[in-house]
Amino acid sequence: MTVRLAIGLLSAATLAYEVLLLRLFAIVQWHHFAYMAISVALLGFGVSGTFLFLARDRLQPRFAAAFAVNAAGFGVTALAAFALAQRLPFNALEVVWVPRQLLWLAVLYLVLGIPFFAAANCIGLAFIRFGGAIGRVYAWNLAGSGAGALGLVGLLYLVPPESALRLITGLGLAAAVLAALADGRRYRKAAGVLALVAVALPLAVPHGWTALRLSPYKGLSRALAVPGAEVLSQSSSPLGLLTVVGNTRIPLRYAPGLSLANTVEPPAQIALFTDGEGPTAITAFGGDLAPFAYLDFMTSALPYHLLAQPRVLILGAGGGGDVLQALSLGAAAVDAVELDPRVVRLVSATHRDFAGNLYGYPRVRAHVAEARAFISGRPESWDLIQMPLLDSFAAASAGVYGLSESYVYTVEAFREYIRHLRPGGYLAITRWLKLPPRDSLKLFASAVAALERDGIATPGERLVMLRGWGTTTLLVRNGAIGEAETAAIRAFARDRGFDIAWLPGLAAAEANRFTILREPWFYEGARALAGPDREDFLDRYKFAIRPATDDRPYFFDFFRWRSLPEFLELRTQSGAALIEWGYPILIASLVQAALLSLLLILLPLRLRRAGAGRSPARWRVMAYFLLLGLAFLFVEIAFIQRFVLFLGHPIHAVAVVLAGFLLFAGLGSAGAPRFARAVTGGRLRRATPIGLAVLAIAALAVLYILALPPLFARLMALPEAARIALSLMLIAPLGTVMGMPFPLGLTRVSAAAPALVPWAWGVNGCFSVISAILATVLAIHLGFTAVVVLAALMYLAAGAVFRATLPGEAAAAR
Amino acid sequence: MGRSSLPAAYHANCTGACGRLLRAVAGAAALLALLVPKAAVAEERDRFSGPRAEMVRTIAAYAEQSHDALGRAYIEPEVMAVMGTVPRHAFLPEGTGGEGWLSGFLGRDLATIAYADRPVPIGYNQTISQPFIVALMTDLLAPAPDDVVLEVGTGSGYQAAVLSRLVKRVCSIEIIPALGASAAATLRRLGYANVETRVGDGYYGWEECGPFDGIAVTAAADHVPPPLIRQLKPGGRMVIPVGGPFVTQQLTLIEKAADGQVRTRQLLPVAFVPLVRKAP
């Protein structure tokens, strides 16, 4: 029992560490390289499989000591690796110029790989030791991981990420104490010492070791370098590190894409940074709307010139700039939706006086919710739905979102927004202007697709695209745009020096007058997308601008392989700015992980030709655990995506779904031996436990991926708690059966060729890492439905591989 | 897709012999400037002159592809000549680059770092821009000998030094005091006497120094400060690079016509056509 508890504790700490690393690196660097580093570091699991395969004979007799040493090693290196990683002079932004930087990235892999190696040694040792009770070991491993995922999210609400790191160190050491105690009296003294260390070390490590060292090129670092800047407040949550910066000497001035015709200086502002990126702003408001005249000089102001006293919904209200714009331009009522409750609190409590209690203003109602979840649960409609700039220009231009799924810009989302527009109402989406155009044209294509699916034959008649020098705004009207609107749009654009990129009946000569481009790219793109040339244009454009869908929610990915050679050739002439780096980095991660895995998996067979490596079962064992490793994460990742949309809150969704899958899989794993006995003793003579389990998984997974979207669409209006409960109920049966094939298979390996047990665990570990990356790649190209179908096929294939008895296995053992 | 598939008209203004001629002129001018120091500055003819000439050649090669930004396939010879004389290495912070053969071998010596066509960190969360971008921005300002130019964001002082050789007077504002002080010291030491520096908020421009024939905003901003537009003379030009600290994504060129009308041009520093041509 003590050992199982140690396994659970260590598993919890390991998964928490993995998730925490992503969080920490999102703050100090930019998350795409962090993703790469962590995915490769996870191959520490694979290294461990190889290591144990070679060292098992020496370690097995000293199980408790070996477990304790490795668990303690995990605890200590978890903290040390991050402290060291932060001090490596790796600068992701410089890679284009100084390829040598990649060497530092390799060092980063090694450093971060050590704690995962140590943790995996513990679990692998336990599998070797408890060959007959693998189901239980795996159950504790899974349940612990689930608890770790959930626990970390909870923890991040309470303490800053640096403290969470210290706690994980403590947990690792605590697992070591339990392991030491498990071996009777032999290691009692050592256990005592370890217990002391477990408490003392996390407290004693100097603050400087764990303090976050932000890249000097992040917005926050740069803002703080300006004289007079001070951090007014900082708060940490799973949604990010939110830092408020004020500067009374050299004030912040945030007014993205402001027209050059504007002559008014923005009022005093304080800056908000999320994970060091930004800023967005909270603007001083004293009840008088006159100082906000400059807000009429942004591209996003256009709809207010087409509507009288509109009822406005702002999706992503942030510090309230767009609320002020709505109020100053005559909105009758404003619903301001913001995902992060802390941001709303900053405006309505912490800086209430400065912000003039904006979210408590008579015509304003603030809602804490995710955009899609909020709107689909609402029966009412609006005259104007505004989607302001949610991301900073730095983040947008660095392409760091390339791989983040986003459900607010999908075709389904557009239809949902349009459905909530009153007749003649507008959806307005503002983005940073990028050259050559990417987001703006993808949005345009999405709007066209959404309108077509709603049965509108000529979508172009309902669209307007406006282009300033810094931003673009797309308008989608619920109804055709008439002459009155056209005249108002032309006047608005002319007075502010904005160009119209699309308007029904627009002449090419009109599209490139104020901010002159070599070619009227935006107009040409919009014209092609609104007309019969659309498919041809989408094919020929050098960026991926086909609309994102809920099945392939990668709005920010614009990468096309075909354009890569040209980008690379131009990289030192700012061609680097043409690439959204997320996708190429994902592919690089995949290639690295695959190559390293191959090495790790084949190496032990080479090194021990004479021994267990010659086991005739080895190729089937490899195939089985390879397929399970791939398929388990395919399913998990695809369903996390499905549930994210349903649960609304991205962080809660990931935590609930991940934890749900792991906990129920743990249950399934614990019940696997009983299940096996029931099957073999049952009446279905030709059925095997593994065969039945994989059939059930394949059937459930495919059923879910097809049935969930329509089901979710109906149930979106339920309160969050009900949606979470329902999600867990849906996950329970699938998760439970998914926990079975691994222990059922490993038990058989343990009986047939025990030496292969750690190797099988290593193969599974390697392919879990590959799977996580590959699932995203496949989702980008084929969509999540395809990912799940593939997973179902792989489960069936795994079942087929282990259908016949393994060499060395008694027939009855199946 | 390679460059060859660009529309032919794209290079129509100046290709072939014309381009070669202009490059030759630019090269000769650069060489001449190397041999005959122009002004009081002791512009070093030393171990850095080789790398510097190489840098100028790289800029010239890139400029061939910057038709979009310049409307021509070369940077003005005067600008190129100055790029060939200003000692860029002297603007890097002390201690940049290692010493000895190993640093040289690894490409980490000062000469290689300073004259490679890449941005270099200069501390205080800042970088010194890529030489190609400096040349491009300078060219876009269309500097003339009688011009007064404002620079917002002195940084290392390199851009100001380059401009000072082409105009009458450069006024440069830096927001970070330590950086402003070190740039001022470097400029003084090297004898760039027509550069005035000041530490402060660039948002309000430099009223006493203006109005300006050109304004270079080297610190990215999400909007153009209205005071800067006011301080731009009719006929004046303002250049703003958009992008991160290591990559310039696009350049915004603001032109104030004689009648005060403001027009903007948005330029890619590189020749890139987003649409693949239809197969014939």
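qc> Confidence is low (pLDDT under 50) at residues 1-17, 35-42 of chain B.
qc> done
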